[in-house]
Amino acid sequence: MMNAVVLDAPGPVDHLHLRRLPVPEPGPGHVRIKVEAFGLNRSELHTRLGLAEGVTFPRVLGIEATGTVDADPDGRLPRGTQVAAMMGGMGRTYDGGYAEYTVVPRSQVIPFRSDLPWEILGAIPETLQTAYGSLTTGLGLRPGQTLLIRGGTSALGLATTGLAKQLGATVLATTRSPSRLDALAAHGVDHPLVDDGSIADQVRKILPEGVHAALELVGTPTLPDTLAATRVHGTVCFAGMLSNQWTVPDFYPIGYLPNGVRLTGYGGEAADLPAEVLQGHLDRIANGDITTGPVHVYALDEIRTAHDDLEQGRKVGKLVVRTAS
To answer: What pLDDT does 325 receive?
Structure first.
């Protein structure tokens, strides 16, 4: 038997229940992972609130997990191999990472080697995958360009800042709270901005032509203003929904999009994060070349507190659950 967090039906945090369940058995093409840590994501909040489609209940949540291989019926991955797993229906169409053990398709597993603490390792995989994919596939950001991150104090915003600075970009990033401007600056943001819902004028005071690229992490309420902060032939990538709003009613492209500004989207899978990118990122953290940003650690039986902190936006950085002390 194992401990797992089960959501019986959408609702408030008290719908999350810590229960004893049988340890799942992997079939061919699948791997059982002994979960050491998992990061919390907005996707799981959307599922708990009933905003996600295609979810069946009861369900063990969690679109990612980090730990070691416990069983591989096909013998492809030795027991004890450090791995990260993410996406592909985890925590939605089948049980995910909010548990001491999880079974996932091998195609969603990325091996790595690291001596970093599990709470740090648990903070990285899905956030890195989205940040890396947004900058490469979504934006095609190049050295020397300017990047606006709308929602800069989120874990994804901080991770994207780190990758963009490593690339040689100039970063502007937003926060709704003036008290968090110093946190953005400490993480390498060149121009921290207070977001009152309209920041295009602030951006253009710094860069009159607008930014080369913008990453929209707040959602559709701020998307028009983010587009307005972007220069002609610049690109905005929609990759997050901190506002829990992701659709544009009655979308009319000619009236919605500024002339010459491109709008893309990004939502990746495990296959979109190359193993060498994950390994290189972990090695740079271990060497002190980059940081993960703040990481807030909870025990498995503190999942309701963690989810409430996620929903209320109380923390700057990544929230991680450590399954064992």
So the answer is: 58
Model-level pTM greater than 0.85? Answer: yes
Q: Are 81 and 34 in contact (CB under 8 A)?
A: no
Helical spans, DSSP H, in 88-169: 118-121, 125-133, 155-167
| Averaged pLDDT, 177-193 | 95
pLDDT at residue 307 in the model: 97
**CB atoms inside a 10 Å sphere around CB 268:** 19
Enumerate residues 6+ apart whose C-beta is below 8 A from 184: 152, 153, 161, 173, 175, 192
The pLDDT value recorded for residue 225 is: 97
Peptide bond before residue 58 is cis, with ω within 30 degrees of 0: yes
Give me the DSSP letters along 91-124: TTTB--SSBSEEEEEGGGEEE----S-HHHHTTS
Cα(235)–Cα(30) distance, integer angstroms = 38
